[in-house]
Amino acid sequence: MTKTIWRGVMPAITTPWTLSGEVDHAFVRRHVAWLTDHGCTGIITPGSLGEGATLTLDEKDALWRSCVEGVAGRVPVVAAIAAAGTREAVRTAQAAHAAGCRGLMVLPPYVYKGSWHETAAHMGAVVNATDLPCMLYNNPAAYGVDLLPEQVLDIASRHTNIGAVKESCGDARRVTGLRALLPAGVAVLVGLDDMLVEGVRAGAQGWVAGLANALPRESVRLFDLAASGERAACDALYAWFLPLLRMDTTYDFVQRIKQVQAAVGMVGEGGDSVRAPRMQPTGEALLAQRAEIDAIMRSRPAGV
């Protein structure tokens, strides 16, 4: 087992749909190969951006297998493990392992927001379900549980296959706090697109990225510039990219990121469709969103 998969730009991919509303596996395979070709270091699915809550376990299993086929061993496929019950989460982790995933992103339990003792027990059971390297996921705004640095250290010290934490609280000071406490073998990854540069400058070693689904070249370049300390070039690219990166933090981030994918022609049979209860906007709202994206893309930097 290795912990070194937690590095670089790892897109949390969107889930594409066919016209009949099923997973578009042909596009999944093409998409993950394209992301890998452009320098992404791993594929994570199906998280909230992947509409994971709408997928059955059978659909997740098939999705993981398509991703594994698409990357052809070049980068790891990481399964997002989210469930309301611990038994279901353990079963999902084991299915991901059997499907060929090489890592797990472990979320707190859905719905029930219990004590730290309960949360740690749930996440620990998922981590122990396989021998795969694991990344804990902290997103208090989305999941109602805030994993403090001391708690991340606590659970990581008891489970040797925890190699990273995805931090999405929105405060770059949290990255600093995590880096001050965690051993070098536990990486910190930025989980919000619009704090990538701040997070890397605070010590983050990777990025679980959303807009990389549409713009992997720019995403990898931005991460590399931030990590290498090339401040002027980094800030210039970040200034262009930020209006799009902020779409990762809206309630309708799935719809908006898929619209950006459509703008660059990287969608499958179902276009930028989403699965209910999500819906794409219509009428003037849709036209306004598309106009905003088109205006940004017209000033897309050349030669990135």
SSE diagram, text form:
Layout: E1 8-11, H1 25-37, E2 43-45, H2 57-71, E3 77-81, H3 86-98, E4 103-106, H4 116-128, E5 134-138, H5 140-143, H6 149-158, E6 162-167, H7 172-181, E7 187-190, H8 196-201, E8 206-209, H9 216-228, H10 231-245, H11 253-263, H12 283-298
Parallel strand pairs: 1-8, 2-3, 3-4, 4-5, 5-6, 6-7, 7-8
Describe the protein.
The chain has 304 residues and is of the alpha/beta class. The protein has one domain: Aldolase class I (TIM Barrel, Alpha-Beta Barrel). It has helices at 25-37, 57-71, 86-98, 116-128, 140-143, 149-158, 172-181, 196-201, 216-228, 231-245, 253-263, 283-298, and strands spanning 8-11, 43-45, 77-81, 103-106, 134-138, 162-167, 187-190, 206-209. The protein has an eight-stranded parallel β-sheet with strand order 1-8-7-6-5-4-3-2. Strand 2, helix 2 (57-71) and strand 3 (77-81) form a beta-alpha-beta unit. Helix 11 (253-263) packs across helix 12. It starts with 7 loop residues before the first strand and ends in a 6-residue tail after the last helix.
- CATH T-level fold name: TIM Barrel
Quick one: CATH class?
A: Alpha Beta
User: Spatial order of the strands in the main sheet?
Assistant: 1-8-7-6-5-4-3-2
Annotation, overall tally of beta strands:
8
The assigned CATH architecture is: Alpha-Beta Barrel
Global shape: globular
**Uncertain regions spanning at least 5 consecutive residues:** none
Average pLDDT, rounded to a whole number, is 96
Helix content: 40-55%
**Class derived from helix and strand content:** alpha/beta
Please report the distance between the alpha carbons of the first and last residues.
35 Å
What is the radius of gyration computed over CA atoms, rounded to a whole number of angstroms? 18 Å
> How large is the share of residues in beta strands?
5-15%
Main sheet makeup = 8 strands, parallel
Order of helices and strands: EHEHEHEHEHHEHEHEHHHH
